[in-house]
Amino acid sequence: MLSERQTLLSQDIGGCQNRADLMDCWSRATREYGLDYVTLAAAPTSHDRLLGPLVRETTLPTEYCREFDRLEFLRQCPTVPHISKSIMHNQWTIGSDGQTPSFDCPPEFAALMRKFRLISGILFSMNSVDGSRFVVRYDGDRGMLNMAEINELSMLSIQAFDVFDRLRRTATNTNVLSARELEVVRWTAQGKTSLEIGQILSLSDHTVNAYMTNAIRKLDCVNRTQLVAKAIRMKIIS
User: Cα torsion for 146, 86, 110, 71, to the nearest 10°?
Assistant: First the structure.
């Protein structure tokens, strides 16, 4: 039987008609479980070095994401090998004291998580109807989730991802691009270089270029000039 909390959150998520509304509802649902941040990303592989280009939506602090990628922590993240071997959820913690991680964790990795109070987290694998693999990750300053909470959050994640995937596949406007990709395209249209955009958004120029590459691919373009022109024509930017 669904809990009253799960029922109400499910109704809110199911009624979302765009990605902004979806992330707002998803963020509220995240906080209901004592967690602070939610991230939706393409499933990483052992060949990926940076998290930023994989992220489709996230509420994680920009500074955390920037530092995570600067240190290339994705290569040391325990979730990557887990995703390649299992579709089961993966839960972790660095301990209530921030000093006792439940996984093989380099000191610098744990220090970054402590800095942003990412004490525990959980990840769920998702599959799009077109075969694409994604992950939904939650982080926050709380103890490990119990099984009832995991089951509820798993069902809500599936529903939220289903809404996202529908919007992603049927979008004909700004839903085509993630919030970050849209920002990069807008600044590009204003004549900013990758380095300048990185300074504005607190991202590395490599991450900016990765967002740009994603946007070019999504809009079926061959370069930045064509991307900006098409984005204006589609009224994605003005």
Answer: -150
